[in-house]
Structures are given as C-alpha cells and as structure tokens.
Amino acid sequence: MSCSRCAVSFCCCFTIFVAGIIALIVWSAISGYRLPACSVEDFYVPYLNVTDNSTSVRTNHTLYFDLRLKNREPLVGVSYDDVKVTFFYGQNSSLSTPIGNYSFPKFYQGHGKKARRKALVETYGVPWEAASANVSNGSTVTFRVGLSTRATYESCSDDGGCSYHTYALVQGADIDVDGSGRKVDKQGIRLQSAAAAPQHTCRPVFLGLPVVLYFLVLYV
Ligand SMILES: *[C@@H]1O[C@H](CO)[C@@H](O)[C@H](O)[C@H]1NC(C)=O
Ligand SMILES: *[C@@H]1O[C@H](CO)[C@@H](O)[C@H](O)[C@H]1NC(C)=O
Ligand SMILES: *[C@@H]1O[C@H](CO)[C@@H](O)[C@H](O)[C@H]1NC(C)=O
Ligand SMILES: *[C@@H]1O[C@H](CO)[C@@H](O)[C@H](O)[C@H]1NC(C)=O
Ligand SMILES: *[C@@H]1O[C@H](CO)[C@@H](O)[C@H](O)[C@H]1NC(C)=O
Ligand SMILES: *[C@@H]1O[C@H](CO)[C@@H](O)[C@H](O)[C@H]1NC(C)=O
Ligand SMILES: *[C@@H]1O[C@H](CO)[C@@H](O)[C@H](O)[C@H]1NC(C)=O
C-alpha cells in the first residue's frame, strides 16, 4: 500500500518521518510529561562499617550518597530547581526530625540524559551506639531519603514560541544498611513519589490521537 508509494519517492518518506516526529510531540504535549526517574545508586555510613575499628571512624558522623536522575522524556529537556535531599533515621520516619540534608544547585538536563549527584553529609541526632549494636548483630538499620524539587519541561516550536510545564517532584525511599556500612540492596534503590502523579495514568488514553494523525498524513 503506502510502502510502494514510499519506495517511489524520497519526499514521501521524509513526510512520513516528519509526521512521526510531530505525532510524538503532540503526544507529549497533550498527555503531560513523565517525571524524571530518581534512584540512590550508592549509600555508605562509615560509622556502621563494623570491620573498621579506628577512632576516626567512631567519631565520623557522616553519610555518603550517590543520586541518579534520569530525564525519561525522549524529546524534551527538563530544568530542575535546587534539588533538596533530606535524610531520616529509622523506619516510619516521615514524621521524625531530619538527621541531615543537602541541596544541589538547579541544573538543566537534555532529553533522555542521566545525571549523577554525590555528596558527603554531616548528620545530627542519630543514635549511633544503638544503630551500631544492631548492625554488629547481623541485623540492619533503616535510613530514609527524601528528595524535593520542581521539574520544568520546556518545549519550543520552530517559530520560537515556547511552552513550560512545571511539576513538583517529591519522592522518597527507605534504605537498609548492614554491618558493611553500605546499603544492603546492591542495585539502585528507586525513589517513589510521595503522592500519586496523575499525569502518568492518562497517557495511554491519548495515544490513539497521534496515531490517527500519523496515518492521516500518511494517506493524504
Ligand atoms: C575491633 O574491636 C573488637 C573489640 O573491640 C575486636 O574484637 C575486633 O577484632 C576488632 N576488629 C578489628 C578488625 O580490628
Ligand atoms: C570498611 O572498613 C574497612 C577497613 O577500613 C575497609 O577496608 C572497607 O573497605 C570498608 N567497607 C566499605 C564498604 O567501605
Ligand atoms: C568520614 O568518612 C568518610 C568516608 O570514609 C571520609 O571521606 C570523611 O573524610 C570522614 N570524615 C571525617 C570527619 O572523618
Ligand atoms: C507509622 O506511623 C503512623 C502514624 O504515626 C502509624 O499509624 C503507623 O502504624 C506506623 N507504621 C509503622 C509500620 O510503624
Ligand atoms: C538542613 O541542615 C541544616 C544543618 O546542617 C539545618 O540548619 C537546617 O535546618 C536543615 N534544613 C532542613 C530543611 O532540614
Ligand atoms: C534494632 O533492631 C531491633 C529489631 O531488629 C529494632 O526493634 C530496633 O528498633 C533497632 N534499633 C535501632 C536503633 O535501629
Ligand atoms: C540482635 O538481633 C536481634 C534480632 O536479630 C534483635 O532482636 C536484637 O535487638 C539485636 N541486639 C541488639 C543489641 O541490637
């Protein structure tokens, strides 16, 4: 059908390609953007490394973390506000006081790109002795990490007009740490949205429209 026509003319192929791109852009614009995917790739608490007996470690109240942020939109860049990271100690700690925090400056991330943010954080108020007793015992202790920022997607058309869509990005995850001082889970720990993000659910519903558009252009 259209394939034979396509073989005849390069111009036709190009039209189909452009129509596909337009369909993708329209799809993104009407269905909302997917929030960036955030995960904790590394988490290390020197004090809880039971194999290290040195006094420098017994007075070390820092924790180290390595955060990964991925822009899941294939065509649109995203601007992050200052990325605020807060840490808590213990399970069910969403209501407890933070033991530490860190803030990364705002930055821009191109479509499909990944970024890593690492830092050493000074902590306050962790019951170190009790935590240490637990991990020495072979059990684990739980930390919680919370991330808070705003993600703004900017899409610009050829005539220079730009539209902006801003979403609150508030996510968190529990991190279990054992006597190695590292997180138990060897893989990255994916942060979950604190509240359900409604723009995810409506996406497949709108998928039909750009597909229809695509084939309309194809057969004109
Ligand atoms: C650490 O100290 C404990 C007792 O204080 C001792 O039993 C253990 O062997 C020490 N570990 C190392 C690696 O020095
Ligand atoms: C724990 O401390 C020991 C001794 O200093 C060190 O060799 C080891 O790499 C540390 N563990 C981790 C997970 O960093
Ligand atoms: C605490 O431990 C970390 C990791 O081993 C190290 O980079 C940092 O310099 C230490 N901080 C202090 C105050 O000893
Ligand atoms: C967490 O805290 C809430 C409110 O304080 C409580 O209702 C809930 O049972 C707690 N969950 C766990 C697992 O402790
Ligand atoms: C962040 O930590 C600092 C101390 O390092 C503290 O003064 C400040 O209140 C904390 N901010 C939040 C939002 O927890
Ligand atoms: C130590 O572990 C026990 C059970 O495994 C738990 O009830 C307790 O809260 C833990 N203590 C700390 C300080 O994490
Ligand atoms: C040792 O582990 C057990 C469970 O594995 C826990 O109930 C107990 O509280 C732990 N002891 C200490 C001193 O944390």
TrEMBL record:
<protein>
    <submittedName>
        <fullName>OLC1v1022831C1</fullName>
    </submittedName>
</protein>
<dbReference type="InterPro" id="IPR044839">
    <property type="entry name" value="NDR1-like"/>
</dbReference>
<keyword id="KW-0472">Membrane</keyword>
<dbReference type="GO" id="GO:0098542">
    <property type="term" value="P:defense response to other organism"/>
</dbReference>
<keyword id="KW-1133">Transmembrane helix</keyword>
<keyword id="KW-0812">Transmembrane</keyword>
<feature type="transmembrane region" description="Helical">
    <location>
        <begin position="7"/>
        <end position="30"/>
    </location>
</feature>
<dbReference type="GO" id="GO:0009506">
    <property type="term" value="C:plasmodesma"/>
</dbReference>
<dbReference type="GO" id="GO:0005886">
    <property type="term" value="C:plasma membrane"/>
</dbReference>
